[in-house]
Predict the 3D structure of the following.
Amino acid sequence: MKSAFTYERAGSPAEAVALLAKHGPDAMIWAGGTDMTLQWQQEKVSPTVCIDIRDISELDYIEIDNSGIRIGAMASLASLERSADRHHILTMLSDITKLMATPQTRTLATVGGNLCNASPAADLSPAFVALDATVKIFSALGARKVSMLDFFKGVNKTEVGPAELLEEVFIPLPDDGDVQASYKRIDRTVVDIALVNGSAAVTVGSDGVISKVGLGLGAVAPIILNAPDASAALEGLKLSDVTREKLAKVAAIAAKHAKPITDVRASAGYRQDMVEIMLRRSLEDSISKHGGTL
Amino acid sequence: MGKQDKTLKVIGKGLHVKDAVEKVTGTIRYGVDYEVQNMAHGCIVRCPHAHARITNIDSSKAEALPGFIGILTHEDVPQNDWESAWFNYRGKVLDGIGRFVGDDMAAVAATTPEIARKAAELIEIEYELLPAVFNMEKARLPDAPQIRDEGNERDPYGVSWGNVPAGEAASDHTVECDIFYESQQYAPLGRNACIAEWTGDRVNVITSSQTPSELRDGIHEALGFPLSKIRVQALPSGSSFGQWWSNNFMMISVLLAKKIRKAVKIELTNEECMATVKRRHQERTRGSMGCNKDGELTFFKFDHLIDNGGYGFKDDVGFFCVDMWGKNGHGDYQIHGINTNMVTAGCMRGVGDCTLGASVERCADQLAEQVGIDPVDFRIKNQIVAGDELRMQHSRHNLKGEVDDYIKSVPEHLRKDWPELFKLSAGGTRALLETGSEAFNWKSRWKGWATPTHSEGSVRRGIGVGTGAHVCGVEFEGASNAMVRLNPDGSAKVHAAVGRQGAGAETTQAMVVAEELGLTLDQVEIETGDTDSCPWNHGSLASSTMYRTGWASREAARDVKNQLLAIAAHEFFDSVDPSELDVEDGEVVHGDPGKHNQRIPFSDVLNELRSDSLGQTSSITGSPRVPMPPSTTFARQFGAQFAEVEVDIETGQIKLLDFICVQDSGTVVNPQVLKNQVIGAAICGTGFAIYEHMIFDENTGALKNGNLLDYKLLRCADFPHTTKVIFVEDPDPVGPFGARGAGESPIAAGISAVAQAVYNATGVWVDMPMTPERVVTAIKAAHA
Ligand SMILES: Cc1cc2nc3c(=O)[nH]c(=O)nc-3n(C[C@H](O)[C@H](O)[C@H](O)COP(=O)(O)OP(=O)(O)OC[C@H]3O[C@@H](n4cnc5c(N)ncnc54)[C@H](O)[C@@H]3O)c2cc1C
């Protein structure tokens, strides 16, 4: 049977973590509630207390400065979608949100909720991993920083402890040159979750040399994966020397990290083949955005 | 009859559907929305095994739950078989045997839905496990576990004509096929619920159903008591496609309410709707087809299996998709219905057309490619047009004897206006293909078989055409009736038990009556669900609603009109012959205003009726006074659709780029309603072609994707918003104002169009559904 729960409302991060501490491990944060509603209905979670954090407007922001882009946990997918004009990385993230859910759901759903739900097939996470993002986690003891890669601990499991709150995602921007990123997924209908996905972020310095490559592989393991060996194979190359063949090789190295499973949505074999194609296409796209010719 | 002589005032207008405002504002009430006072809530206890017999039921834990009211088990249930329309279900309400995972085993009632669900979980049932079989081929074997007393396989059912060996000998090209089709789910967006309430020994049943009369028949069979004591009030079902006819959970509701002596509502969850009620059959076509060097078909030979699941009992699927190619003189078509330990399968929109029909289309395409003819020309060459012979399935159902016997039993004078039977009365695909290929610019877009229209990187585009045909209802299970009542104020009410499944029948039936009676649509209302006021009707199924019920509604209106004119002639027009009078804008008028220029409102005529010796009633009721000709023998509807797809040959993803639907449903009664039918069908058919399939656990037969996340339905945005619907109207000699059927030919046409377009884009035929993974696998296999 669905759990009965009491409803609490927090007005600040401090209040939220205090309520979490007070009510113990069966208390849960309720942000947009788009995952929570379903999981509660399907009895996948059985909270005894729900702490509604929609009043915490101080966590609803998207800010840009020289060091990077900060996205508050309470920024909705819809506001991320609307931020496209503010930075080319936000354009790319905005394009991702357009693939996600429906306009109604995007209005409610938050970026923080998407990350904390920790679905291996979620759409933002691979891009954040590729972009080498970090998150800020708040607790009574203060804030701590965790890399996006380390944030995910398993299906629906994250670094966020029982009396902690996710506050912010930070995407660093390079001191020198620029970063371009891309994300590709296999889906079926317009409302679907990714059968498999892949993302790439490529930084090219002012000298025209690729200084940093980030990769994110989704829906091929319980958590989002990266592929440092594949990234290294591209780093140090001049943008003008990059070829399609080179990118195909890099994607193939990266795809070796995948450990896909077979389920009703797709077979392991298909996921294995497709993650390579998604990565290759993301790489090609990032290189093209830099003006590279392939 | 043919073309209408009088200008039509209502028919042909794109009037708003009657329930548009209710729907848009969310005030329409479906089965789940309804409540009656003091009702209890029921929940079904479901079988966790594929095949098992109950040895013991312990309800003590549930009984201890506060709010528990009662339990219904097989021991409380009359052991009568009941049948749903077209043998979509045959079995007992509960008999202590579970035949699939999720089967109904018992039901509990409690004060709230939550307690009922909890109580159902607490019922402890011990089972003796029985061997199970999930594969139709295995279920046919002599030593297969037997799922039903009648055996797993129905008698084969077929149609043969000409001499197949002679046809084979005359063939220059032959193709063979062996194609498996997975089950499609109705995937309703709305759920269903059933309320049963007993008053003394009468029961009132409130539920969403497309077939109110059949539901009442089912309850009568299951309980074994008089039809007069059963009232069904069928509510709108929303898109149903064959799912909500009469379903076993409705029978359970009736018996549970009886047992606990209290009204009860059983409301199904989404998961129950998808996994425990009904689905399209899994099907398999094996066969061959040939043609001569000119591309004229020489023979057909098809052996087709359908899997009925636990309680389906069908032995046939539409033969019309075969007969559409009926210019060839030799054929043999056999169907085998087979039970398996999976959820019951039954009719879903375009039954047979979407599967067997798609097999025939694929074989035809392969022959056309061998001969080197384009698919439009090949269809025009081989498909029937008005006047061509129809070979029909002979009835083995409720109609006694064969159709020929029925025909002979109708007195000669009542048959004199009938069209020639066993010949297509109107329509055909030719005009559709010609109109459609022009609108699609087919001739210049066609680049040849297996040749993409555009190729760039991993993207290939291809075009395709497909056709579909279906009957316009069938007479085998009984003639659909309707009644029309003219009220004292001159407004009219139609009583036609066709349900409301979103297809617009509540509007189009009323339009037919409005036209016949010279009223506006607003002056005609309709009761579609109450079996206490509606005569027996087959319901909205087999594309019969406009054709067969529409015919009955018009005949009933004609009867009302005749009675009205007779009274008016006597009372207001100096006893002229009533045939000199007519109706117009709610008034009776003389055909020649020079003779009589008065206009008498219907209400005046009816008022005369009240106060006059002519009758003791203040309203007029009308019914059809002549038998309807057996329309299976001559009436068909046709669809042709053209599609362009884009296939990513690396990932297997298919995008739909362009779609044109051309439809021949005779006279278009309401273009908006028909457009909605045709586009809805094209989307549903395309969904079946590329995504939709039920995935069953190979060890238990349980449904693994019984939710709308993993059962992929096309959304509006997946379908080209530029899709055009074009009507070709060849009026029917019998249908109301020349209308024919509509719902099922357009679902079939799109499936084959998309399949062929994918072939032309990629050079491989992919079995359905053509999911990304299957497309990639098929391409790889072809290149290996
Ligand atoms: C129809 C539909 C389609 C969807 N399609 C997609 C899709 O295409 N791609 C995709 O990635 N997702 C999709 N989703 C999932 C969903 O919308 C997202 O995961 C959403 O972003 C979750 O945000 P929320 O605010 O609604 O989270 P909630 O449901 O409120 O919370 C989700 C989880 O995160 C926890 N949580 C939330 N915020 C915080 C916080 N600040 N700190 C700590 N814990 C927190 C909650 O306790 C809960 O466990 C879809 C959902 C629906 C209903």
Notes: The first strand of chain A starts at residue 6 and ends at 9. The mean pLDDT of chain A is 97. Residues 178-289 of chain A form a domain with the Enolase-like; domain 1 fold (CATH 3.30.390.50). Chain A has eleven helices and 13 strands.
